[in-house]
Automatic annotation (TrEMBL):
It comes from the Bacteria. Keywords: Hydrolase, Protease, Serine protease. Belongs to the peptidase S9A family. The keyword Protease applies. The keyword Disulfide bond does not apply. Residues 8-415 form the Peptidase S9A N-terminal domain. Pfam families: Peptidase_S9, Peptidase_S9_N. It comes from Micromonospora harpali. Residues 481-696 form the Peptidase S9 prolyl oligopeptidase catalytic domain. This is S9 family peptidase.
Length: 698
């Protein structure tokens, strides 16, 4: 690499904070001033520095981008899903960044979804929204709501052009193509229609960007006349809204990290008062699905891994058991259809689906042959159906769409996402790759699962480069997924591993509980144990191992860099939550109060304060030999603010100046990074080129 001068840091008076008798000096707090010209100048200089330090990788980046593009069928069409009298689907067109949302009328006798040749438009299609037209003149574009009314006449949709996840909601008349004057700025995700499509419910946020209000809007009236249906004043809770698949009820979901309540409004009486299905009780979570005369209740009341029950839809009361609690089998959701229920679950670290006939008879699980995979329900808008749509993938199997007959138990492959020939012209063959499940032993004796994929025949003598990925928060599970861009690493001899550390949900609710609050350090020590295990087992060596994580997984990256800097040759931290103590101490920041049930409340609890300070990456930067670090962030991120990685990189340079640290900031994007598919491919090519360089495989 070249050795350009490090980015100069503006001289500012350090800020101080004192909590529980502890005074902390923050030399880089000024970087939180997003509108300060010196902040923008600093980020711009960091970008220039990163570009200069990686200029030698420009050709490799272009090659990796081209490999992803060549392997991707750019003009493509999703498997149409039926809703009422139409098939709904999304098309992509070669050279265009965004999808085109379409529908086509169902024809007489048509039961199977129509098929397109080479992704071409279906005969008779109707374009509902073209993301490319909406995005014209903008560097960023994201679609929030896309919600067709029950009668198929109206489309509620919302757009974001900055990446801050604050959308402008609009309504389109699908019979005339006219976009109505009904326009609501500053909305969040989530909409729901009334049964007669005269009313649309939506969500807005408070000053801390917490979704806290559900509104009722009557079509054809100005938004100034909209009515607040529910306002959630408890700052630990956020709200959402949706229409049940049966189209009988509007659900208002009120949820904190550990407690929930659901309010219902009859969809046929949208001006009615919301009624609670069950009042909230601290520590009890439940969700609701409507099914005939009853509400299905998925809950954790005396059921750590959740149980399924039901109560009367007319007069909700006692919960009658349907599926009892089984430790080790985590029930995650239930979907109701007229004659069947489908329960999404996980056991032994794998996802699964269980079908329950409504009229009696034994339930059954849907079987899949691979040792590692992820499966879940896809879009299933029809309530009265005997088929459900599934989405399936593994580390070697491209994303596949199946229809499953709930009566005959027949599984029909509708489409497997094409992987076109690579640069060598060879067709993609899953048999060219291997996937494995391994287990590491954590410091406390806990066995931690690792999923691995590599090119067939990759040596197990420590000579292979390896990327180890982790997350470990919010009970989010890193289930096996397929990636076209990842093939460029595997084909260069790199092993890809996923460490299923505590704090995630792979092994049930207890796995999550053992990696949060005052047990959070298990997440970090588990990851280090997985890294050490990969070296000990011959998958790689410490000087050929790069760690990667994003968001809360970026916190994991910062923590393990402090905990075991010798274990890694490089660390990629994307939109990383690396200054958690500062953020969680400030209840005015977006989402802080809602996070206290995940991390603890250091503002009021000195034990939590001391514990968080002991692992927070920014607080624990030391004069040690760190691995090379690449931090990637976005200026308009509202979930993890850009200044966390900016401060972290600045402090690393000051305290351990011998290290190689880079910061790349997307100046017009949000938490998910660039919005267009080609831009996101370029971003991935940038990261993978840096990884290959660290592994000596560039």
């Amino acid at each position: 690499m070249t050795t350009e001068t490090p980015v100069p840091v503006a001289k500012r008076v350090p800020s101080e904070r004192t909590h529980h008798g502890d005074t902390v000096v923050d030399e880089y707090a000024w970087l939180a001033a997003k509108d300060d010209p010196e902040t923008i100048a600093h980020l711009t200089a960091e970008n220039a520095h990163t570009e200069a330090r990686t200029a030698h990788l420009a050709e490799l980046r272009a090659t990796l981008f081209e490999e992803t593009r060549r392997r991707t069928q750019e003009t493509d069409l999703s498997v149409p899903a039926r809703k009422g009298d139409h098939w709904y689907y999304t098309r992509t067109v070669e050279g265009q960044q965004y999808g085109v949302q379409c529908r086509r009328a169902v024809r007489d006798g048509e039961t199977d979804p129509p098929v397109s040749v080479d992704g071409a438009p279906l005969d008779g299609e109707e374009v509902l929204l073209d993301g490319n037209l909406l995005a014209e003149g903008h560097d960023f574009f994201s679609l929030g709501a896309f919600d067709v009314s029950p009668d198929g006449r109206w489309l509620a949709y919302s757009t974001d052009f900055s990446g801050d996840e604050r959308f402008t909601l609009r309504v389109k008349d699908l019979t005339t193509g006219e976009v109505l004057a009904d326009e609501v700025p500053g909305t969040f995700y989530g909409t729901a229609w009334s049964a007669d499509a005269s009313v649309l419910f939506y969500v807005t946020v408070d000053d801390a960007w917490r979704p806290h209000r559900v509104w009722r809007h009557r079509i054809g009236t100005p938004s100034t006349e909209d009515v607040v249906v529910h306002q959630e004043d408890d700052e630990r809770f956020w709200v959402g809204v949706e229409l049940t698949r049966s189209e009988k009820f509007v659900l208002i979901d009120i949820h904190s990290k550990i407690t929930s309540e659901v309010l219902v409004i009859p969809a046929g009486n949208p001006t009615g008062e919301p009624a609670s299905v069950a009042p909230r009780r601290q520590g009890v979570e439940y969700s609701v699905e409507h099914h005939g005369h009853r509400f299905l209740i998925l809950h954790n009341d005396d059921a750590e891994d959740f149980a399924l029950a039901y109560t009367s839809a007319d007069a909700p009361g006692d919960w009658v058991p349907l599926i009892p609690h089984t430790p080790g089998t985590r029930l995650e959701s239930v979907d109701a259809f007229a004659d069947h229920l489908v329960v999404s679950l996980r056991t032994n670290g794998l996802t699964g689906l269980r079908v329950l006939p409504v009229g009696g008879g034994d339930g059954h699980d849907i079987d899949f042959p691979e040792p590692l995979y992820s499966v879940g329900l896809d879009s299933n808008p029809e309530y009265r159906t005997r088929q459900v749509r599934l989405r399936y993938a593994s580390l070697v199997a491209p994303e596949s769409v199946y229809d499953y007959d709930l009566v005959t138990r027949e599984l029909t492959l509708r489409r497997r996402k094409p992987v076109l020939p690579g640069p060598d012209g060879r067709e993609y063959d899953p048999a060219d790759y291997e996937q494995h499940r391994d287990w590491a032993l954590a410091d406390d004796g806990t066995r931690v699962p690792i999923s691995l994929v590599c090119r067939a025949g990759t040596p197990r003598d420590g000579s292979a480069g390896c990327v180890i990925y982790g997350y470990g928060s919010y009970e989010a599970s890193m289930d096996p997924w397929f990636s076209v861009a990842r093939l460029s690493l595997l084909d260069r001899g790199v092993v890809f591993a996923v460490a299923h550390v505590r704090g995630g949900g792979e092994l049930g609710r207890r796995w999550y509980d053992q990696g949060k609050m005052l047990a959070k350090k298990n997440t970090f020590t588990d990851f280090v144990a997985c890294a050490r295990h990969l070296v000990k087992s011959g998958w790689t060596s410490a000087d050929r191992l790069v760690a990667r994580g994003a968001s809360a997984g970026g916190l994991l990256m910062g923590a393990v860099a402090n905990l075991a800097p010798d274990a890694f040759a490089g660390v990629v931290a994307q939109v990383p939550f690396v200054d958690p103590l500062t953020s969680i101490l400030d209840p005015s920041l977006p989402l802080t109060v809602t996070e206290w049930e995940e991390w603890g409340n250091p503002l009021d609890d000195p034990e939590v304060y001391a514990y968080m300070k002991s692992y927070a990456p920014y607080e624990n930067v030391a004069a040690v030999d760190y691995p090379a670090i690449l931090a990637v962030t976005s200026l308009n991120d509202t979930r993890v603010l850009y200044h966390e990685p900016a401060k972290w990189i600045a402090r690393l340079r000051a305290v351990a100046p011998q290290g190689d640290y880079l910061l790349k900031t997307e100046m017009g994007a949000g938490h998910g990074g660039p919005s267009g598919r080609y831009d996101s491919w370029r971003e991935e090519a940038f990261v993978n080129a840096w990884i290959l360089d660290r592994l000596g495989a560039a």
